[in-house]
Write a structure and sequence with these properties.
mainly alpha; about 80% helix
Length: about 190
């Protein structure tokens, strides 16, 4: 769809981008809810044992949930980049993205050593925000009328759905007979 964007009317390009952004929000909300809900149980099943301490598994599950929460930003970044590149703004787009990477590298050097995993997650969020914003600004500065507003109405509906689904799913995963059968303390009872 985006490869044909330069030949379409600006209104149609905006409609296509709006549709893609809406679908991205729906898909990432569902995937994020599943990972936030069952990620720790899954990682415990895969990693628990003598090699990984339960605290390491919990930290990895926390980081995984945080990264999956950032999926909407990653999806928006990919869509805006594709839209700007399809309109032959390759040089400008990648120059802007390179600047974002330089800023993110500087942030990583300053923030991660001091704050550890939460700092890494914050730098990832800033990087993805920059990756979503850079192509959008390139499109805007170059005067393209492709600019589609993020689907805020759908985002809030999915955010509410996820905020309800996560506690329910967490309860089902962590306080169900399945969890007590598969986990002995913080270790998977493996069949050898």
């Amino acid at each position: 769809i985006f490869s044909e964007a330069s030949s379409l009317e600006p209104q149609r390009r905006g409609e296509l981008l709006q549709q893609a952004l809406s679908q991205m929000v729906a898909v990432t909300a569902l995937v994020s809810a599943a990972v936030i809900t069952g990620g720790q149980l899954l990682l415990t099943g895969l990693w628990a044992g003598e090699r990984f301490h339960p605290d390491q598994v919990r930290a990895a599950a926390w980081l995984l949930a945080g990264l999956f929460t950032l999926l909407p930003l990653a999806g928006a970044a990919a869509l805006w980049r594709k839209a700007s590149v399809s309109l032959h703004l390759l040089w400008e787009t990648y120059l802007a993205l390179s600047l974002v990477q330089l800023v993110s590298a500087g942030l990583a050097l300053l923030v991660v050593p001091q704050f550890g995993l939460p700092g890494a997650l914050a730098v990832s969020a800033a990087n993805l925000l920059g990756f979503a914003g850079a192509p959008w600004w390139v499109l805007k500065i170059r005067g393209h009328r492709l600019i589609a507003a993020p689907p805020v109405d759908r985002f809030w509906k999915w955010a509410i759905a996820v905020s309800v689904a996560v506690p329910v799913g967490y309860g089902l995963f962590h306080w169900s007979p399945l969890a007590s059968l598969t986990l002995g303390g913080d270790r998977l009872l493996a069949i050898t």
